[in-house]
Write a structure and sequence with these properties.
- By secondary structure, the chain is an alpha+beta fold.
- It has helices at about 5-10, 60-70, 120, 125-140, 150-155, 155-165, 175-185, 195-200, 210-220, and strands spanning about 20, 45, 50-55, 75-80, 85, 95, 100-105, 105-115, 145-150, 190-195, 225, 240.
- The protein has a four-stranded mixed sheet with strand order 4-7-8-9. A three-stranded antiparallel sheet has the order 1-5-6, with helices on one face.
- A hairpin with a 4-residue loop joins β2 (about 45) and β3 (about 50-55).
- The termini are far apart.
């Protein structure tokens, strides 16, 4: 791309004549990280919620995946979900790869993660991609968000809670656990406290039991019960059922 074309792209004076959204075959990430020669910290996070492993190329991305894994509003998420191609009338093209796509029930949220909001302004070409992507997402009825790690991730209770809860995501859950917590939710019409849920899942009525805590955390990740991770989690914190049947008033016999 010539310097003159680059200038026109970043000033926004030329709009794309065609936009394509290209997804990978099989529904996975559109691109993967090449470990060799990659100077930034990289790794893999294995998601129980999505039943697949995701590569991450920045610590902030890993942290946001932890939050998404635990947040009950997020039904699924995908890293590097697609390539957004902006085709221009002169034959040139710009590509944009969003960091994460999250599904919140019927809603779709496209996430770009940066250390600070100011990072985008430093690169005019990158800023133009973000602006174009935002327009495309709005037209499709999707939400587009730039998440700044220094304000939206690192200092939050959501990250602090997710760090602990995600550790127990693969804890085994048995029929007895579903029956115990199900009865507790039935009596509370779909609500109970964190301590009572742990006690029920401890199988020995211990609200501080480590096994009971792990089982509850695993059920939170699975979306079987929910808790607000944006607040400090205490023994009296409310845990509620994802099953609407437990929230209905009891019917007299």
């Amino acid at each position: 791309m010539s310097k003159e074309t680059e200038k026109r792209r970043t000033t926004g004076s030329l709009r794309p004549s065609l936009v394509k959204i290209v997804r990978a075959t099989g529904g996975g990430p559109i691109r993967t990280i090449l470990e060799r020669g990659h100077r930034k910290p990289t790794g893999v996070f294995t998601s129980r919620k999505n039943r697949r492993a995701f590569a991450w190329e920045a610590i902030d991305e890993r942290h946001f995946m932890w939050i998404s894994e635990v947040d009950y509003r997020v039904t699924s998420f995908l890293v590097q979900p697609f390539r957004m191609e902006f085709h221009f009338a002169d034959g040139d093209r710009m590509d944009y790869f969003p960091d994460i796509e999250r599904r919140l029930g019927p809603k779709i949220e496209i996430i770009e993660i940066k250390k600070t909001q100011a990072e985008i302004a430093k690169d005019p070409r990158y800023a133009s991609k973000i602006a174009l992507a935002r327009v495309v997402c709005r037209k499709k009825g999707w939400t587009f968000r730039v998440v700044a790690a220094e304000t939206d991730i690192l200092p939050t209770l959501a990250l602090a809670n997710a760090k602990l809860i995600r550790l127990d995501r693969f804890t085994a859950i048995g029929t007895e656990d579903h029956l115990r917590l199900g009865e507790l939710m039935r009596l509370g019409r779909g609500r109970t406290t964190y301590a009572k849920a742990v006690a029920a899942l401890s199988r020995r009525d211990d609200p501080w039991d480590r096994d009971g805590t792990a089982r509850l955390h695993a059920m939170i990740v699975r979306g079987e019960v929910c808790i607000d991770i944006t607040r400090s989690i205490r023994p009296e914190s409310i845990v509620f059922s994802s099953d609407e049947t437990f929230r209905r008033p009891a019917v007299a016999a």
